[in-house]
Specification:
About 0% of the residues lie in helices and about 45% in strands.
């Protein structure tokens, strides 16, 4: 079973960059497609990025395309979400997801 642990969330200023990590303590993450989601207060959880198990292809919604990058380090069994040019509307709890399993989330706050 995949057990996911996110880290890296913190308070940053608009325009800053931040890298989130999603580590697995169970099965290798390269066996699965991995997604990053976020949920802001009062809003539904939405998908921010996805990296395919099969060919490493990626997906981003228009709201973050060009600013966010998902990548995986199979040797470290970790998937990353690099976030650049952060905006206040990026404030949310960020979760990674794979094969029916969610992590506990990490809080990202973008504020001056």
């Amino acid at each position: 079973q995949v057990q996911l642990v996110e880290s890296g969330g913190t308070l940053v200023q608009p325009g800053d960059s931040l890298r989130l990590s999603c580590a697995s303590s169970g099965e290798p993450l390269d066996d699965y497609t991995i997604g990053w989601f976020r949920q802001a207060p009062g809003k539904e959880r939405e998908e921010m990025a996805c990296i395919s198990q099969t060919d490493g292809s990626t997906y981003y919604p228009d709201s973050v395309k060009g600013r966010f990058t998902i990548s995986r380090d199979n040797a470290k069994n970790t998937v990353y979400l690099q976030m650049n040019s952060l905006k206040p509307e990026d404030t949310a709890v960020y979760y990674c997801y794979s094969n029916g399993n969610w992590g506990q989330g990490t809080q990202v706050t973008v504020s001056s």
